[in-house]
Design brief:
Number of helices: 11
Oligomer: single chain
Strand content: 15-25%
Number of strands: 26
CATH class of the largest domain: Alpha Beta
Structural class: alpha/beta
Bound molecules: flavin-adenine dinucleotide
Helix content: 25-40%
Shape: globular
Largest sheet: 5 strands, parallel
Radius of gyration: 23 Å
Length: 447
């Protein structure tokens, strides 16, 4: 296999994954005498906390994603390769790419994040999409919007339509955000758009196996989140384990629920790249790392973000954006220390808090810094909005997202209500026959 040629004799840093952690590591290395190669299988960095807003048609994909190449274009010591790492040879310090090329490294930074886990029921994946990438978000958007369109069409043709039941599985932040936003769409945004159906009669059900939603949050905030969801019309079912999913139904707590669209927000597992290191992994596939973010016995390899299992004060640091970004910044500091021959600084996570939104004007927030507080309702939502706009990459994105939110907030319109791709829904009882020519035309459409 071809090894990509070396440009200089400076240390080579290969960063795999340009999510929050990898990107911050790359940006932190900008002014160091190293050659950086960023490898990502996708050409864009995605701001995942706002994916649900793409999935529910508030924002467009380009509002929350930006080409990695353009983010790093001013960084003279950095090249970007769109490729996937498929093997790591730690003794010879090389990674293999799907394209067949190899990259040699002096430092390897692994930041490939996490993916959905269907707890061994992978056959559920096509019936209940999860939310991790822009592609996932546009698929969810397609399914949710298509359900209303098919209902309207069937109403015109047959005078009735199946119940518009949307089932969200998993009551963590993503499930809560999705359920709240679907309810908003049905109750507020769609209400004047259809002549034959009443979107506000849709049901949104949130199924959670544990006793409360947002189980990682303090109990008072879980209770407030559940109350806010109920006010929005979401039916919250806690202590409800899902035992089966099929086209058009979900089986939970011993009964079968009709579900025109089923969404999965119940489990995550670390990217499979951790296995390539040969290290012992935790039960979610994360790589245990020490104070300098190295797996045992591999001081020139750093594992960051959702892929890392880093413990502080006896607890694993959560798989959210802040630790990922802080780890990215820290790796750059460690490499700088190495170059100076100084001692490596130990990583310490600085927890500023967590927040989750519920619909268009409520949220819950556990604030840890600059003061400690539990917030809910509209003040928490304003805080959430400010923080998320602040962390969006690029001025254009911040401006367009802010404008889209204000516009939607005041006018009840949705800017990105586009259905692209297949016009069939796994849960719809009367599927139109597949039309290969139409399918081919759909694939050619640009988002
Ligand atoms: C829907 C959703 C909502 C969220 N909401 C919040 C929130 O509100 N607040 C919060 O703090 N956190 C939130 N999170 C979590 C947060 O987004 C993650 O913790 C964070 O993205 C982790 O960063 P990372 O750099 O480890 O991985 P990621 O950001 O996932 O980036 C991983 C990168 O690696 C690339 N990659 C993967 N495998 C390979 C490979 N083999 N070769 C090359 N490239 C590869 C991927 O393309 C991707 O670009 C949310 C996550 C999701 C999915």
């Amino acid at each position: 296999m071809a090894e990509l040629p070396r440009q200089t004799t400076r240390p080579r840093v290969v960063i795999v994954g340009a999510g929050f952690a990898g990107l911050r590591a790359a940006l932190g290395l900008a002014h160091l005498p190293v050659d950086v190669t960023v490898v990502d299988r996708s050409n864009h960095h995605t701001f995942q906390p706002l994916l649900y807003q793409v999935a529910l048609a508030v924002l467009s994909p380009a509002d929350i994603a930006q080409p990695i190449r353009s983010i790093l274009r001013k960084q003279a010591n950095t090249q970007v390769l769109m490729d996937e790492v498929v093997a790591i040879d730690t003794p010879s310090r090389r990674v293999s790419l799907r394209s067949g090329a190899q990259l040699a490294y002096d430092y390897l930074v692994l930041a490939t994040g996490a993916t959905h886990s269907y707890f061994g029921k992978d056959e559920w994946a096509p019936l209940a999409p999860g939310l991790k990438t822009i592609e996932d978000a546009t698929e969810i958007r397609r399914q949710v919007l298509l359900a209303f369109e098919l209902a309207e069409r069937q109403m015109v043709e047959q005078g009735s339509h199946p119940p518009l039941n949307f089932v969200v599985i998993g009551g963590g932040p993503t499930g809560v955000e999705l359920a709240g936003a679907i309810s908003d769409i049905a109750q507020l945004y769609m209400r004047h758009d259809f002549r034959h159906i009443d979107p506000s009669k849709s049901r949104v059900m949130l199924l959670e196996g544990s006793p409360r939603v947002l189980a990682a949050y303090p109990p008072d905030l879980s209770a407030k989140a559940e109350a806010a969801l109920t006010r929005l019309g979401v039916e919250v079912h806690t202590k409800t384990q899902v035992t089966g999913i099929g086209p058009g139904w979900v089986e939970a707590a011993g009964s079968r629920i009709d579900a025109i669209v089923t969404l999965w927000a119940a489990g995550v597992q670390a990217s499979p790249l951790g296995k390539l290191l040969g290290a012992t992994l935790d039960r979610r596939g994360c790589v245990p790392v020490d104070r300098t973010l190295n797996p045992a016995g591999l001081p020139n390899i750093f594992v960051l973000g959702d892929l890392a299992h880093f413990e502080q004060n006896g607890h694993q640091v959560p798989g959210v954006a802040q630790p990922a970004m802080q780890m990215g910044d820290h790796v750059a500091r460690i490499i700088a220390a190495d170059l100076k021959g100084a001692q490596r600084p130990a990583f310490r996570y600085f927890d500023k808090g967590d927040m989750a939104t519920i619909g268009r004007m409520a949220a819950v927030a556990k604030v840890e810094w600059p003061f400690k507080a539990h917030m809910s309702g509209f003040p928490a939502w304003i805080t959430w909005l400010t923080v998320h706009i602040f962390f969006l990459i690029g001025f254009r994105n911040r401006l367009s997202v802010f404008a889209a939110w204000i516009w939607n907030y005041l006018t009840f319109t949705r800017g990105a209500r586009l259905i692209t791709g297949d016009q069939r829904l796994p849960g719809w009882p009367t599927q139109p026959a597949a039309d290969p020519a139409a399918d081919a035309r759909q694939k050619e459409r640009v988002l």
